Amino acid sequence: MKKLKVLLLVLIIVVLTACSSNKEPLTLDEFKSIMRDNDYYMVNAISQFSDYGYINDAYIARKTGEDYQIEFYELEDDSYAISFYNTNKEIFEASKTNDSIYTSIDLKDTNKYTLLNENSYKVLSRIEDTVLYIDVDKKYKNEVNSIIKKLGY
């Protein structure tokens, strides 16, 4: 019984620690610097979103010779970022199949959703007013996860 109480206490501490996000959002300059340091080139994509006044900045990172991109969005505030995240999460969820594997984490200042199906790997990660958007062929999963880790998303 004593072991059960100790185990329960440890579990509560882990859950409470996990629920308090201490992640800091990247600035656009930090995102660009990390991506360039990892051999990505940057494309300013804000003109594609001129009708969306709540998107302050949008950049696409691409790697020469590779057929995928990583998108970074800075939105007007957290509420717009949450809405942007939720809208894109719904789009990702529409591609689920019976064999899909997905994760979803929702905390106060962060959200993260991943989906792996037979053809693609999708990631949405929000920290405060920023969102990382990735929709790639599943063969890039490990490479994408490596850069996500470096970005802290």
Task: Write a structural description.
It is a single chain. With 153 residues, the chain is α+β, with helices and mostly antiparallel strands. The chain has one domain (25-151): Protein Transport Mog1p, Chain A, CATH 3.40.1000. It has helices at residues 2-19, 28-37, 78-93, 141-151; strands at residues 40-44, 55-63, 69-75, 101-106, 110-116, 120-127, 130-137. The chain has a seven-stranded antiparallel beta sheet, sandwiched between helices.
Can you lay out the helices and strands and say which pair or pack?
Blueprint lengths: L1 H18 L8 H10 L2 E5 L10 E9 L5 E7 L2 H16 L7 E6 L3 E7 L3 E8 L2 E8 L3 H11 L2
Antiparallel strand pairs: 1-2, 2-3, 3-7, 4-5, 5-6, 6-7
Which series of helices and strands comes N to C?
A: HHEEEHEEEEH
What's the CATH first level? Alpha Beta
Q: Main β-sheet: number of strands, strand sense, barrel status? A: 7 strands, antiparallel
Bulk shape: globular
Order of strands across the main sheet: 1-2-3-7-6-5-4
Structure characteristics:
153 residues; alpha+beta; Protein Transport Mog1p, Chain A; seven-stranded antiparallel beta sheet; 7 strands; disordered N terminus
